[in-house]
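Q: Could you fold this chain for me?
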Amino acid sequence: MKNAKFVVQVNRGGSRALEYVARIDRSPVGTTLKRNMALLMGKWTAEDVIKSLENSRCSTELVAIRVSK
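A: Sure. Below is the predicted structure, expressed as structure tokens.
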């Protein structure tokens, strides 16, 4: 059975590479450049992270990932 989990992709603009949210337990949110190190979240948690980052100077995107259960 496969489920959909989500990662939050962060683009800080300029020449910086895409980053992914790795930790949400501290402020500011921790990010990583490696997608396989990104935090897999449920949809509601990922949307909360996006709302918390929307006031900063970065654009965020919700990316769906299929995972085996």
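A (continued): The chain has one helix and four strands.
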